[in-house]
Design brief:
The chain has 324 residues and is an alpha/beta fold. 41% of the residues lie in helices and 17% in strands.
Length: 324
């Protein structure tokens, strides 16, 4: 699960609104050309594999789309690019997108590549504790510290909700931000009592002797949108046909990813730092191309409940009718 640091939201909003004022919204596609040029900004994670597969398989060319993929690891870089028009689409974690929407950035979810699973063993996010420690259940974490990849985002949100549903009290647990690759050492040296990791970093946790405790997403947000395809509202209004063509081609790539996991494993090292040996064995997310409002609403409701946003979000506005 990807996270947007809460402290970065103000900077993102300021940059986005400044870009909107300066550029007057997104630029329209070149209607004089039969081929529409599109830029998509992503983080180099497995959830965006359908985009690269759609490119590889020629699904975009079938729709006369010339797609450029730009990598921007943080949501703080991807969100302003949509409003300025330097990118027409981005793949962004649902909670990150909703935090921006709540702060006034005109973003809309028009598709999705991955959703959370309802099968704990298949969840790409997992919580681990020391193999020889005294923590045997989520309730045992009360009064202890859990490491998370980033504070204030979707990972922390789903974890808090899952802990409360599993018998713990998240208000009595300390959450400490820690790099994912540092978590196994942090757990072993006693810096934290548990770690909330994601694939492929879960492999390192298990190799270090850490013991699996729970799968947050499968508990608190099963079937929810994990990596939505996001665009600026202005662009949707100006280029509805191009949006339809792009989402259709990407959906084809997402369905292809779901049907060909070996293709996902093969292409992942070409755009990420995941070694092939790890890509061959890591837990893959659930690839799904159909986006529903309910898949986004579950996040919006949890964000309001846990104070990640101040006011209820109208999901009908965030997910346009017929977007996917």
């Amino acid at each position: 699960m990807k996270n947007l640091n809460k402290n970065a939201v103000a900077g993102i909003i300021g940059a986005s609104l400044l870009a909107l004022t300066a550029c007057g919204g997104t630029a329209a596609s070149d209607t004089a050309s039969a081929t529409h040029k599109i830029t998509v900004t992503v983080s180099p994670i497995v959830d965006v594999a359908p985009l690269y597969l759609a490119q590889q398989q020629g699904f975009f060319k079938e729709k006369n789309l010339d797609v450029t993929i730009n990598v921007a690891p943080t949501s703080g870089a991807r969100i302003p690019s949509l409003v300025s028009g330097s990118a027409q689409f981005a793949l962004i974690g649902t909670a990150d997108m909703l935090q921006a929407v709540a702060a006034g950035v005109p973003l809309r979810a028009v598709g999705v590549t991955t959703v959370t699973t309802n099968v704990p063993a298949n969840d790409t996010g997992k919580v681990y504790v020391k193999g020889t420690g005294s923590i045997k259940s989520p309730a045992d974490l009360n009064g202890h510290t859990i490491a998370v990849g980033s504070l204030g985002g979707g990972g922390e949100l789903s974890l808090r909700a899952a802990l409360d549903q599993a018998g713990a009290d998240s208000s009595k647990i300390k959450f400490l931000e820690m790099p994912l690759d540092s978590m196994p050492n942090g757990l072993q040296n006693g810096q934290v009592d548990a770690i909330s990791s994601i694939a492929p970093f879960t492999a390192a946790a298990e190799a270090s002797g850490a013991r699996y405790l729970m799968s947050p997403g499968a508990i608190s947000t099963p079937g929810a949108a994990q990596e939505p395809v996001v665009a600026a509202q202005d662009y949707l209004a100006k280029e509805p046909n191009t949006v339809k063509d792009f989402i259709g081609a990407l959906a084809k790539g997402t369905d292809y990813a779901a049907q060909h996991p070996d293709a996902v494993r093969k292409i992942l090292p070409t755009f990420s730092k995941t070694p092939q040996a790890l890509a061959d064995t890591m837990q893959l997310p659930v690839f799904q191309s159909h986006l529903t409002k309910a898949q986004v609403a579950v996040w919006a409701d949890l964000m309001l409940k846990y104070g990640f946003i101040k006011q209820k979000i109208n999901v009908d506005d965030v997910v346009p009718q017929g977007a996917n």
